[in-house]
């Protein structure tokens, strides 16, 4: 259901979902829910476990951080979130959708 929601509600086209380092429990849960996904969605989900060469068959190493066998440096999510909070249009839209926006950020963009 989460995957179907991502594909239908996320504001980008989902070409594929790659899952790495999943546990056996996740595999079992996915096996139960897989029949509920349509064929198109089932064909977009890839499980790689700890096999990074399998991931590299789908995603170029130049697009991956080093910890996944790629060539890029790590980029903490906090930097990405901080950069988004500097864009008034994005902050206003997130707030209008019901996301909690810290008061100081909201005040800055509403000026």
TrEMBL record:
Q: Where is the CRAL-TRIO domain?
A: 1-76
Stated name of the protein: CRAL-TRIO domain-containing protein
Any one GO molecular-function label of the UniProt entry: phosphatidylinositol bisphosphate binding
Provide GO CC annotations from the record.
membrane
């Amino acid at each position: 259901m989460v995957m179907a929601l991502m594909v239908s509600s996320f504001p980008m086209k989902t070409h594929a979902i790659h899952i790495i380092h999943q546990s056996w429990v996740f595999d079992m849960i996915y096996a139960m829910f897989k029949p509920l996904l349509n064929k198109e969605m089932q064909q977009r989900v890839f499980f790689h476990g700890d096999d990074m060469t399998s991931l590299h068959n789908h995603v170029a190493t130049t697009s991956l951080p080093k910890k996944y066998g790629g060539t890029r440096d790590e980029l903490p999510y906090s930097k990405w979130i901080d950069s988004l909070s500097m864009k008034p249009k994005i902050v206003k839209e997130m707030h209008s959708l019901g996301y909690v926006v810290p008061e100081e950020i909201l005040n800055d963009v509403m000026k």
